[in-house]
Specification:
Chain lengths: ~180, ~170
């Protein structure tokens, strides 16, 4: 009997490998996706000056932990996916009333001003980041978006553009959970 | 032609370094530490390149940050901890040994142990089978003894051997 079970071993190994490959090749899986190390961490320490030519003030850690749920969005005028997510973000900020703060990442001020003039400016404050701000936030590229709770704790971190049903499926449920 | 070959050979031999002159620290000891540390840190947008060899903007930013922290008096471990706190273990090119990575570090050893165990049991069973075949029944022992005593008996004493004619030719 045990002998016979022994011959099932290759079949078992095959099943495990096949399951692994199936998971690996699944179209729903993004092999580039990275888990964020920032979730549940307090607001990073940063203090960014305003973008010259924009009416908004700059952005610093102290502006965020004010007892209100806020969104922080890293963007740049040279970033194409940022352009794609911009209408979604604008609409979300208007509809939900959640303050949206921007961090303009490695951009020329005049390019950023022109970009926001063209597409609209939904941000309450905008900090100009030469690169170090992104490292403080664990950001690897633009666009990336965070949701912070009233105590300034990071509750949500998305790498890449917030387009399609992401807002409906991830962002809005998170906002609802944080703002009863 | 020969000059071209020399130039090509030199280019191939060049180490891949993305470090720019304005990043280099005046203190050669700190700079050496920064270089060694940079080789351990992954450029987070380039999947499998260290910040030492990547030209990405973020790699430059992290190289500058590593140097800044070293100048400020951080130990190598403190610099790595600072980055791990922000980018997770992904930022380290050499994964740390901790419960979550035991399978990664010890998996090959465990597979090897399984293989050794399988080989051991295989040979043990083979030897058991070999010794088992040597133990004959009383009747067979008697027949063997008869055959050994009298070689001629082997010719006559073949009542049940259907394969025999073939071997005898």
């Amino acid at each position: 009997m045990t002998q016979r079970l022994f011959f099932l071993l290759p079949l078992l190994i095959f099943a495990v490998l096949a399951g692994y490959f199936l998971w690996g090749l699944s179209p729903d899986r993004d092999p580039q996706a990275l888990p964020s190390a920032m979730i549940d961490r307090p607001t990073p320490e940063f203090d960014l000056p305003p973008v010259p030519g924009l009416p908004q003030p700059g952005l610093a850690s102290a502006d965020l932990a004010q007892g209100e749920v806020v969104m922080v969005n890293f963007f740049a005028s040279w970033c194409v996916p940022c352009r794609a997510e911009h209408p979604y973000l604008t609409e979300l900020a208007e509809r939900s009333g959640v303050p949206l703060y921007g961090i303009n990442h490695r951009d020329k001020p005049e390019a950023a001003v022109a970009w926001l003039e063209e597409l609209g400016n939904p941000y309450r404050r905008i900090g100009a980041d030469s690169g170090r701000g992104a490292v403080e936030w664990g950001v690897s590229g633009v666009p990336e978006t965070f949701i912070l709770d009233g105590e300034g704790r990071i509750r949500y971190h998305h790498r890449g553009p917030l387009v399609g049903d992401l807002i409906e499926k991830e962002v809005e449920p998170m906002l609802r959970a944080l703002r009863p | 032609m020969r000059a071209l070959a020399v130039v090509l050979a030199l280019l191939i031999g060049m180490p891949a370094v993305a470090l720019e002159p304005d990043e280099i620290l005046p203190d050669p000891v700190l700079e050496q530490r920064a270089r060694e540390l940079s080789k351990e840190i992954r450029c987070v947008v380039c999947q499998n390149e260290s910040i030492d060899s990547s030209n990405a903007d973020i790699a430059r930013e992290v190289r500058l940050l590593v140097r800044e922290r070293l100048v400020a008096g951080d130990s190598d471990q403190q610099v790595l901890d600072y980055l791990v706190a922000r980018y997770g273990d992904f930022v380290l090119l050499r994964p740390p040994v901790k419960p979550g990575t035991y399978l990664l570090w010890f998996g090959p050893g465990i597979v090897l142990l399984f293989g050794l165990a399988a080989v051991f049991f295989f040979f043990r069973r083979q030897r058991a089978a070999a010794t088992g075949a040597a133990s004959l029944s009383a009747e067979e022992e008697a027949r063997l003894a008869r055959l050994l005593d009298d070689p001629d008996a082997a010719q006559n004493n073949q009542p049940t051997a259907p394969a025999e004619p073939k071997e005898r030719r």
